[in-house]
Write a structure and sequence with these properties.
InterPro entries: BaxI_1-like. With 240 residues, this protein is an all-alpha fold. It is built from 8 helices and no strands. It starts with a helix and ends with a helix.
C-alpha cells in the first residue's frame, strides 16, 4: 500500500540483491502466520466467550502495536527481519478480533470479506502484470494522498470512539457511509498496485536482499487493510 513500510524504503544496494521470488516467499510466510494467529484468536475467543468490548480493546491495541512495528521496520530496515514475525502475529490478533466481532452480528460476512480480498488481490495483480493499469507518478501521488487523508480521518474517528461518539454520516451504516466505504475499499485495493510497483523497482535497482522483509510487511499490511474494509462494507450491505 502507499505506506511508509514500503515507500520510505531507501535504495540500498547490496552484494545479494532482492528478488521477486524472495518477496513472494516471505509475503506468503507472513500471510500464513497472520492467518494462523487470526484463526487461533478467533476460535479461542469464540470458545471461551470473550466479550465484544474486550475484542474491541484487543483490536485497538493490535492496531497501535502493528503500527509501531511497521514504522520501525520502515525507518530502521535492518530490524525488519526480526520484527516481521511479531508484526504478522499482531496483525493476526487484529484479524481474529474484528472477524469475531462481525461474526457475532453477521456470521457470513468474515468469509465473504476474505474471499473478496483474495479475489481483488488476484485482479489487481493481473491488471498490473498485463499493464492495464500503470503506476505513474500521478497515480502514485493520488493514491498516497488519499491513503494519508483516510489515515488521518480514521485516527480522528478512533478518538471519537474512545469517548463514545462517532464522526457523523461516515460510519453509521447509511448511504453516505456505504459510499465512503466503497471509496476507501477502492483506495486500499489500488494501494496493492503501488506495492507491486515498489517491489519491481526494488528488484530493478538491486536493493539488498534483507529489504525483502520490508516489502513483505508492506504487502501484508495492505492485504489486512483490504480485508478490514471489505468486512466493513459487506457488513453495511448486510445491515441495509
Amino acid at each position: 500500500m502507499a505506506n511508509p513500510i514500503i515507500s520510505r524504503t531507501e535504495l540500498a544496494t547490496g552484494v545479494v540483491a532482492m528478488s521477486v521470488r524472495g518477496v513472494v516467499a516471505k509475503s506468503a510466510f507472513l500471510l500464513s502466520l497472520a492467518a494462523l494467529s487470526g484463526f487461533g484468536v478467533f476460535l479461542y475467543a469464540l470458545s471461551v466467550g470473550i466479550s465484544s468490548s474486550m475484542l474491541h480493546t484487543m483490536a485497538i491495541v493490535s492496531v497501535f502495536a502493528g503500527m509501531g512495528l511497521g514504522l520501525i521496520s520502515a525507518f530502521k530496515p535492518q530490524f525488519a527481519k526480526a520484527l516481521a514475525v511479531p508484526y504478522a502475529l499482531t496483525e493476526g490478533v487484529l484479524l481474529g478480533s474484528i472477524s469475531l466481532i462481525m461474526y457475532r452480528i453477521y456470521p457470513t460476512v468474515p468469509l465473504s470479506a476474505l474471499s473478496a480480498t483474495f479475489i481483488t488481490a488476484a485482479v489487481m495483480l493481473t491488471l498490473y502484470v498485463t499493464g492495464v493499469i500503470k503506476v505513474t507518478e500521478k497515480f502514485r501521488s493520488i493514491i498516497t494522498s488519499a491513503v494519508i487523508a483516510i489515515g488521518i480521518l480514521y485516527l480522528v474517528q478512533l478518538g471519537f470512539r474512545l469517548f463514545g461518539s462517532s464522526l457523523p454520516l461516515l460510519f453509521d451504516g447509511g448511504m453516505v457511509a456505504i459510499g465512503f466505504s466503497v471509496f476507501v475499499t477502492l483506495i486500499a485495493s489500488f494501494s496493492l498496485l503501488l506495492d507491486f510497483d515498489n517491489v519491481e523497482k526494488g528488484v530493478a535497482f538491486g536493493i539488498d536482499k534483507h529489504y525483502e522483509w520490508v516489502y513483505s510487511i508492506g504487502i501484508l499490511s495492505t492485504l489486512v487493510w483490504m480485508y478490514i474494509e471489505f468486512l466493513r462494507l459487506i457488513g453495511y450491505l448486510q445491515n441495509d
